[in-house]
Amino acid sequence: MPVALALHLVAAVIWVGGMFFAYMALRPAAASMEPAQRLPLWSRTFGRFFPWVWAAVIALPATGYWMIIQAFGGMAHAGLRINIMQTLGVIMILLYLHVFFAPYRRLNRAVTAGDFAAASKQLTQIRRLIGINLLIGLTTIVVAGAGRYWH
Prior knowledge:
Elements: H1 2-30, H2 35-72, H3 80-113, H4 116-146
Helix pairs in contact: 1-2, 1-4, 2-3, 2-4, 3-4
């Protein structure tokens, strides 16, 4: 159980922390850059970050269900906060899969082709979806930390 919890927490910190950094630090800093520099930067940044997100997308459900089985004996005995975390996690994963397989791929193709107008449209879509996923991730963290005190 301690190993599952540690892996779960590290995966959540990497994913949510990475989104927070991208949204709150890198995005404003890169906004003043010219598209020819900004858009390849984002493409390369996502290229380095998304393998970590893939690891989190695998680790979080695996360790989450591992803990549910170990601590509660299965979903039938899991409380409301566990069900909320599970639901929010599934939504986050689905949003990530969409980002990865649709606008991120289109962003890379547009950057490679030098079509910065098209790349900018894809980056705008990615930014919005990451903002949504960041809010969901932060909410999930609050549920995980404070949910045990709900009565």
